[in-house]
Amino acid sequence: MANQPMLKFVKVMRDMPEKRDANVRAKDFQEIYAEYADAKAKEQSSRCSQCGVPYCQSHCPLHNNIPDWLRLTAEGRLQEAYEVSQATNTFPEICGRICPQDRLCEGNCVIEQSGHGTVTIGAVEKYITDTAWDEGWVQPIKPHAERTESVGIIGAGPGGLAAADVLRRQGIQVTIYDRYDRAGGLLTYGIPGFKLEKPVVMRRNDQLEAGGVRFKLNCDVGGDMSFQEIRDQHDAVIIATGVYKTRDLQGPGSGAEGIVRAIDYLTASNRKSFGDAVPEFESGALNAEGKKVVVIGGGDTAMDCVRTAIRQGATSVKCLYRRDRANMPGSQREVQNAEEEGVKFEWLTAPKGFKGDPVTGVIVEKMRLGLPDATGRQSPEVIEGSDYVEDADIVIKALGFEPEDLPTLWGQPELPVTRWGTVKAEFTTGATDLDGVYAVGDIVRGASLVVWAIRDGRDCAEAILDRFNGAKSVAAE
């Protein structure tokens, strides 16, 4: 047992990478966690209990072989650890940074349940793949043989990119169409740099392009190119557009100038970080500098907005959420980070209306939690006569996203959608009722996690490969 590299959780305490001081990090858009040193990564990996039924793995949407790569890291076999990690996850370094590990792998770690503090799975995952990039272990895709079948993917977000990676490794000809000027979707324009620095995303885009994936950017499907044209050019099409339509606010004054969408606000900030000219930022319309900011919503997008506003130099940043802290959908870790950086949360509050045009304030009504709704969560109820006004120079709507009306936008009334507007597709394969048309990620699930989009993209790619391989065997007969 002297050389046993694992099971050290009794003697070694959980230790996250050092977090930069809140006063320092709130002034820039760099990631807030330092990198593990090699010895620290080995030490923290050695805390894994190597349990017979690894709940971390079963609660990961990708079913990553977490105990295996933790052991390899503890033994100093980092290149093997990377290969095991990459076998099930297209973007381990991205998941290591932005997955809500507290709700997935780490939240279900056996030693966490026994009171020893979870293994720092996300931080080790990030360390393994960052090391792999530094050491040159991450190489462009090189298929053993090229194939004639081609797949068109609409949307260059995590679902589309993951599908492209799997298909290209098997020699399939892949073209990705995206409305933006850079690939990555929300990874590029929706998530701030302090959670996911942009070179991390750009190097993956470059890796895919170097491996033969073709990108048609600035391509608006339904405008620049029709959906039918894309279908005609490929043997299969994957819809991976994500959901970008913002849920709207009601109430008097909700159309006032200064009330903006979270996606517009975050995109402007991220474009600024790329060095782009952003007129809406320069004019102050999408810039919080010197302003009182109110963000409405309680998910991770709301957390991205409040923390961005702090970094832009807002004079005050408040977040209104209609339930309490315990019932908030966003990551508790993100709430803590935001509070450390100076954000104030107004729990059990909701907007009733708005003052001024341009906006000068939010009319807020206080709430209490009543009986559980159909999902089991307590429903917020208005406390009559509790209204007050929260001063605001800019109000950011972070109430979640809904799907755009693709059948109308694309002139495809036969594209099957659910009553929520999401594309109707098989969860296991992504297949729709239209022959050769598949859909993955948020456009099927509704707004969800990046890791689920990666899972969907990979599963869909495998289903398409099965279809192509089945067609080849039938042709051979």
Automatic annotation (TrEMBL):
SUPFAM superfamilies: alpha-helical ferredoxin, Nucleotide-binding domain
Domain of life: Bacteria
Domain FAD/NAD(P)-binding: 151-457
Pfam families: Fer4_20, Pyr_redox_2
Dihydroprymidine dehydrogenase domain sequence ranges: 25-136
InterPro entries in the cross-refs: DPD_II (IPR028261), FAD/NAD-bd_sf (IPR036188), FAD/NAD-binding_dom (IPR023753), GltD-like (IPR006006), Helical_ferredxn (IPR009051)
Record GO terms (molecular function): 4 iron, 4 sulfur cluster binding; metal ion binding; oxidoreductase activity
Keywords: 4Fe-4S, Iron, Iron-sulfur, Metal-binding, Oxidoreductase
Protein name in UniProt: NAD(P)-dependent oxidoreductase
Natural source organism: Thalassococcus profundi
Organism classification: Bacteria, Pseudomonadati, Pseudomonadota, Alphaproteobacteria, Rhodobacterales
